[in-house]
Amino acid sequence: MKLEMDERGTADVAKFWLFMATDIIVELSFGKSFGILKHGKKNQYIKDLEGLAAKGSIRSTFPTLISIATKLPLPIFKETAAAAQRIRDYSAEAVARYKRYFANNPAAAKPTLFRKLFDAGEAGLSDDEIRAEAQAYIVAGSDTTATTLTYLVYSVCCHGDVRQKLVKELMELPDDFGHSDLRELLHLNNVIDETLRLYAAVPSALPRVVPAKGAHLAGYFIPGDTVVSTQAWTLHRDPDVFPDPETWDPARWEKGSKLMHDAVMPFGGGSRGISLTCCFFSSLY
Questions:
Q1: Taking residues 271-282, what's their average pLDDT?
Q2: Is position 170 within any domain?
Q3: What does the UniProt keyword field contain (predicted)?
Q4: Does the residue 17 lie in any domain?
Q5: Which ranges in the chain belong to alpha helices (H)?
Q6: The model scores a pTM over 0.85
Q7: Number of compact structural domains in the chain
Q8: What is the Cα–Cα distance from 177 to 4, expressed in whole angstroms?
Q9: Mind listing the pLDDT tens digit for each residue in 126-140?
Q10: Which of 34, 230, 237, 242 would suit a FRET pair with 257, their CA atoms being 20 to 30 Å apart?
């Protein structure tokens, strides 16, 4: 970042947030980071992930069409298939490497998100299932964290009063501060909550299947097995819950109501949302 500042007078913070977030989530998943923050450039794995992510909306909208298209001898489809295979190969190799190290020296092996699954033996997931889960965590935990942090920095820089309060609060931290100290910083956490509200990392629809017996909601009956979707953008901009919703205002969280906290779902809801939220805050703090 300093090199960019020296050469251009500006730095692309989004890029460096992506490097940091990716290194953290890869280490949490595979036990060893890529080290891309140190080197300052993307590796092939990240380039492949970004390329596939860019095609994700098309793939999810037209799954059958994409399945057929990948069999056509066209360069764009061949490269997509090759990128997907490279990701699978690296992930499988990383899982196998960690599994071997864990088996030979479990006390020295770094804790990962999937360590308990290795501990579970046959009762846990297969290596291929762990690989797929790790890939999903990397996709879900890299761009989302980087995007949120970029908006956070931008918003703080645009509000001098907020920046001053935040810097003052951070300067009062002890030299040996830890996660528990950061969680006690009222202004910092208000800034994070407001950024997640206005610039949700996952603003798209989150489909869920209604239980087989159906469900009653707000006076309506929803038949079982119906796929319903919610998305954060509308919920986070409800003026009845968040007055002046388009304004970035961390102070609104100083007396945040239960309704406000219930209405915010930047990573979705339920057990999956909780898992992603934990990963996000692990990266952030």
A1: 51
A2: no
A3: Heme, Iron, Metal-binding, Oxidoreductase
A4: yes
A5: 2-8, 13-30, 36-39, 44-54, 56-61, 63-69, 75-104, 115-119, 127-158, 160-171, 179-183, 186-198, 232-235, 258-263, 270-284
A6: no
A7: 1
A8: 30
A9: 878 888 888 788 877
A10: 230
